[in-house]
């Protein structure tokens, strides 16, 4: 068995994840934020590993 | 992470290689365009940034766990110095940007506490056991490393569980968030980085390269991508949040109740749980890293044809446990080598420095544990 098999499994994992997620939640491009946060005037709201919930 | 792309790679050496490489570029650009079109321009650009991270990390063999191991075991400073250089380059731009745009950009700033220090220490151990950190696990999985591929889903589960229990852990005791801000903060950050580099150079073995060209290039490229992440997303480069979100979504889809978790039931978390991962910043860059690393592996002649190494059963069990602990500990530590060390220090958070010291101390133990757990490949 070669790394082609395991690397392909990684891609299948990612594709499956996106497919599973799209079945439950669809993005709406009409509600998308501006392309760049810098200069947008909007407060950042993304999830981050350093952030506490409050 | 395997061999670097070299100028000597001739695409006409192998039949169909040129077509394959053109196809890889085309597929990458189409994916970015599709996400940009159907989710939004910001999301498409963040996927592109993630692909860039994956290509740079795998293509230039740049990482975190490997260079720490090289410094500790062989006293080779190049990789660690490149990390510090990259952090310095980001901080020169990021800290002033954060000071002048506080309503639009946020740093990777988090409190120092008992659980944070312990989490970083455990992360340092585990990243040496599997020889993959936050970004390294994604890169290695994408390029076909079976240990990282197995660790990845357990990393995600650990990240989810760590966030689930995060408030309990932080209640054990934390300081307020301490940051180095503005011009004084930038000068202090650069001075501390210079001190860290001086210590590394002092401990380096005589005669080994101090900072090789490949690492220097990688430092500049990674810094540019990290700044792109900050300017586009409004927040620094991170890895672990996205992995935990994937597991939380799976748990929720299977009927799991997240109401008991202060973290996952908070309004911000609830909103992201109900939204597409194609609109979550760290998910997009994580996906991009895996795909980018795969692209580099497929680009190289023979990289995917390499036989998989053999490991004893205890190595696979250790990988599962270490993978879970990587995710769990990195949530308690408010980030991994990327979110806490790289992004924390480069955006002026003192927790990044404490993370660095604690994780580096843990790495000494992890390096000793790795062969005992059977993770040095037999063939």
UniProtKB/TrEMBL annotation, chain A:
<protein>
    <submittedName>
        <fullName>Uncharacterized protein</fullName>
    </submittedName>
</protein>
From TrEMBL, chain B:
<feature type="transmembrane region" description="Helical">
    <location>
        <begin position="217"/>
        <end position="237"/>
    </location>
</feature>
<keyword id="KW-0472">Membrane</keyword>
<feature type="transmembrane region" description="Helical">
    <location>
        <begin position="21"/>
        <end position="39"/>
    </location>
</feature>
<comment type="similarity">
    <text>Belongs to the TsuA/YedE (TC 9.B.102) family.</text>
</comment>
<dbReference type="InterPro" id="IPR007272">
    <property type="entry name" value="Sulf_transp_TsuA/YedE"/>
</dbReference>
<feature type="transmembrane region" description="Helical">
    <location>
        <begin position="111"/>
        <end position="135"/>
    </location>
</feature>
<keyword id="KW-1003">Cell membrane</keyword>
<protein>
    <submittedName>
        <fullName>Uncharacterized protein</fullName>
    </submittedName>
</protein>
<keyword id="KW-0997">Cell inner membrane</keyword>
<feature type="transmembrane region" description="Helical">
    <location>
        <begin position="350"/>
        <end position="369"/>
    </location>
</feature>
<dbReference type="GO" id="GO:0005886">
    <property type="term" value="C:plasma membrane"/>
</dbReference>
<keyword id="KW-1133">Transmembrane helix</keyword>
<feature type="transmembrane region" description="Helical">
    <location>
        <begin position="281"/>
        <end position="299"/>
    </location>
</feature>
<feature type="transmembrane region" description="Helical">
    <location>
        <begin position="45"/>
        <end position="68"/>
    </location>
</feature>
<dbReference type="Pfam" id="PF04143">
    <property type="entry name" value="Sulf_transp"/>
</dbReference>
<feature type="transmembrane region" description="Helical">
    <location>
        <begin position="80"/>
        <end position="99"/>
    </location>
</feature>
<keyword id="KW-0812">Transmembrane</keyword>
<feature type="transmembrane region" description="Helical">
    <location>
        <begin position="187"/>
        <end position="205"/>
    </location>
</feature>
<keyword id="KW-0813">Transport</keyword>
<feature type="transmembrane region" description="Helical">
    <location>
        <begin position="147"/>
        <end position="167"/>
    </location>
</feature>
